[in-house]
Amino acid sequence: MSSSDKPLVKKLLHTRMRVNDLDRTIRFYRDILGLRVSRTFTSPRGSRIAYLWIPGSDVELEITEFEASGPVNVPPDLVHLAFEVANMDETIDRLASLNVPVTDGPTHTGHSIFAFIDAPEGYEIELIQTLHTAPAPPALPGGEELELGSIGPDSSPEILSELSKSHDRWVRETVAGHPATPPEALLTLSMDPDPLVREVAAQNPFLPEEAFQVLSRDPKEVIRSVLAKNISLSEEIARTLLSDPSPWVRESLAWNEALPVGILDILHKDEHPVVRSAATFTLSEKNRPAK
């Protein structure tokens, strides 16, 4: 390997998150998740900083508090940390005893079980139990086994339909984004228990209208935001998203140049400034004379 082919970096050392209340955040990661505080100090500019050691890893979590930077507001579904657990049932029981609710899951994928909990200040935590027994891949009626490698640009709707039932999340994600996936399979994937599968489905411009309707009511804000940018969004679904309580969903809608001008005009008068700004730009682009 030549020097130009070598990775520029060696390994991940730490990841940093800024918070409003350092002490509260330390208590969560230390007392709930079992991370250990390795060091705390105050930086020359006045930031309070704590490094937490993560079991089984060389990576540390850096938590900082700096009031002079203003309040921290973490948008929903922006970022999460994923930790492995030994036993999901025992983990959920332990969380319940500590009055920590599970916000999503537990979800079984075949290779793993995962669940989400909320950390302080809008950050999310994913907990994953890895299963050591992988399920058999789906098969066609003739007995031919299918797997992720079976999917390609020329995959038939029959194969994609079978793979949409896979226990493997990665397979379902790939099928959810494929242009040849049959409408009935896309509808099923739009209701998949795994939010990452639904998020990929929301980007697919070949979704049937019923899948658009399902995803427009998805409890995950990030999925509705992704759907709002879909170029095949009908006017009916766009009008549903117009009344979405999240300004981030409405902002995503306002960036969609495929929308009718009438929808963009409504977004241009939205109560939230980021929505109005996005709609202003999109309207200007739609009105720009073609070269």
UniProtKB/TrEMBL annotation:
Record-linked InterPro entries: ARM-like, ARM-type_fold, Glyas_Bleomycin-R_OHBP_Dase, Glyas_Fos-R_dOase_dom, LRR_variant, MMCE/EMCE_epimerase, VOC_core
Residues spanning the signal sequence: none
Keyword Signal: no
Keyword terms: Lyase, Metal-binding
Keyword Lyase: yes
One function term, GO molecular function aspect: methylmalonyl-CoA epimerase activity
EC numbers for this chain: 4.4.1.5
Chain ranges of the VOC domain: 11-130
One record GO biological process: L-methylmalonyl-CoA metabolic process
Coiled-coil ranges per UniProt: none
Protein's name in the database: Lactoylglutathione lyase
Organism, as annotated: Leptospirillum ferriphilum
